[in-house]
Amino acid sequence: MKLTTGSALLFCCILPAFHAIAAGFDHALSLPKRTENLVFRDRLKPNWLPDGHTFWYRVQTGPKTHEFVLIDANTGTRKTAPTLKALGLPEKEALKSSTAKIELRRTSRTGEESGLKFINQLGSDLDLFWINQEGEHVRYGGIRAGAEREQHTFEGHVWLITSRTGEHLAIIEAGPQLQTLIIDGKGLTPAKAEHPKKETGDRAPDGSCVVTSQADKVPKRQITIVDSTPTGQLQPKLKVLDYTKPGDPLPKPQIIITHKDGRTIRVPQDLYQNPFTESGRLPLTWAPDSHEFYFDYNQRGHQLYRILAADPKTGTVRTVVEETSKTFIDYTHKTWRHWLHASSELLWMSERDGWCHIYLYDTQTGHVKNQITKGAWPVREVLYVDDSKRQVWFLASGMRKEEDPYHLHLCRVNFDGTGFQQLTQGDGNHHIEFSPNRDFFTASYSRADLPPVHELRRSHDGSLVCTLETADASALLAAGWTMPERFTAKGRDGTTDIHGILIKPSHFDPAKKYPVIEDIYAGPHSAFAPKDFGRLLNHHILAELGFIIVKLDGMGTNHRGKAFHDVCWKNLKDAGFPDRKLWIKAAAQTRPWMDLTRVGIYGGSAGGQNAMRALLDHHDFYQVAVADCGCHDNRMDKIWWNEQWMGWPVDESYARSSNKDDAHKLQGHLLLIVGELDTNVDPASTTQVVGALQKANKTFDFMPIIGTGHGAAETPYGSRLRMEFLVRHLKP
């Protein structure tokens, strides 16, 4: 190839720039390795002793060090030692593979650092595998015949030992302390349990009758996806899945009572004519004395919800609880209940006063006896109900004006609404674990900008026994990781606070200008700005490329009261954008290094729908978007999630929120990503958008990722592609 002087000069200029970009990517992608294992005293799991007031835990104190801690909960007295034996506690005895059960299971959690010691007493070499969270067997080398080997691991990780021919010999799950496994033979294979034939229907406790649901079959929608490169064969495979979408017909069950003598009663459907059920069943609960049974009626459209009681002798139906809403009832998260059959009462969760609270019902009259919790804050989760003391223990948020309204706190209240007490006090998001006798609890709290603090408190009044640990993140910060910055600004109404975080690169220079990228997920089922401390690696990797990363929750998301939540109703395209833009602009007013002439956005699933919507309706603010596996048209996505927020019947509101229908409005740089094997969101939701963009003669990028399911942009290839696209168009 012949180069002119000009082209040679251009080549010489481009080559160093290319190498600089590649080096920047490599540096950013090395962040996980550079920052791992640098936060200490951040996790603990109490191991309570039989006396009920003493417990021990193992805590990491350095990169390769730990200590054991013994706590007397009555006094807060603390003893530390390098081993359990030094604390006067028995070390765990060695296990023998020949006496242990072989029960294959995947790793379900990652706890504190721990270790395993393997002693191979067999005459042949063995293989060692970690079974990861996906159930994959990841090989970690071998154990020679007659040899010993120690393996670093984490509490909760599951390990498999096999012969060289692949025969399973032993399974072990790592605990909080070093555990020894002597491999002296093949473990015990559990006998297959013989399950008695399951009876159809729900039998009354006294055996007098059985209740079943019958429904005419309705056609089930199926979708077809193509596995273009299946393992083990050259030719593609078709996969056909049952996949019900908004507006599809649903079964309408008829409840039937069948008595011992063969007599049947068809329970009148007047009060449950159009239930939302894909299975055709209406789960029920029997009263212990069999005088009636209870079942839920969630009317399709989610604006009417009833708990109904039926008399098994006559089939007569009455209403125990009825909830109505002009928008939607959050049936997946806010229909908790607790039956008090002995007193003919029911604890019931409702947002009828605008906030998620608990009510006490008389199940005989169907009337509210009293509201148990009250205030402009939501009950988030009920942890425990003490029937004898008539008390409810629950997590709530938003009770203190000076604190982030998403922070969870432990509370207790009596059934009559008296005696309310907030039992945790730290300024952070709390995680609670009770002692076995519930006399004490550990409260671990943190924030995005505060490493965890672990406390021991008394259950009766929440008083502090002692601070167990305060996490040390100094080594993490010294490695270049930057602490997220929390920020609050007013939303579209000028009064409601919107909360989020900003993340800066490790090489941050306040004299420079940085483009801004928002990670968006506006799914109404929850809230998503981080409230717990963590490394937030995806955000920090992007920041290292020279970006300011922001994450926040606008109106339409959950946990801030009904009015805040209702913004999403029949309006998923809103996605809180009016609040998001105001928040970012407010942050930039006091942060001149935020360059709002270069703003990008990315998200996956519902966040993919949101990210593309930014370039359809808000291209005056956002210029670049990466949309992964988006539910771009809510008529194309799964029924339960979309009808919950968009309602039923399917109406013009679905079209108004459709990225496909609005594809002609695109302005800016868009990258669409989809996994060809996505079974969560129909991949056609993305390809239909591609077709609409092509028809509108729009320029955009599209990358299907082969052999991948939902969340394709989080694969190594997809993540790198997203980084390259954002760098190319935002030019950090």
TrEMBL record:
Pfam families the UniProt entry points to: DPPIV_N, Peptidase_S9
Region ranges (Disordered): 190-209
The answer on whether this UniProt entry bears the keyword Transport reads no
Q: Which GO terms describe its biological process?
A: proteolysis
Q: Which residues form the Peptidase S9 prolyl oligopeptidase catalytic domain?
A: 538-731
Q: Give the signal sequence positions.
A: 1-22
Residue intervals of the Dipeptidylpeptidase IV N-terminal domain: 204-452
Compositional bias annotation for Basic and acidic residues: 192-205
List the keywords (alphabetical): Aminopeptidase, Hydrolase, Protease, Signal
Molecular-function GO terms, alphabetical: aminopeptidase activity; serine-type peptidase activity
Q: Which PANTHER family match?
A: BLR1971 PROTEIN (PTHR11731:SF118), PROTEASE FAMILY S9B,C DIPEPTIDYL-PEPTIDASE IV-RELATED (PTHR11731)
Identify this protein by name. Answer: Dipeptidyl aminopeptidase/acylaminoacyl peptidase
Q: Which organism is it from?
A: Prosthecobacter vanneervenii
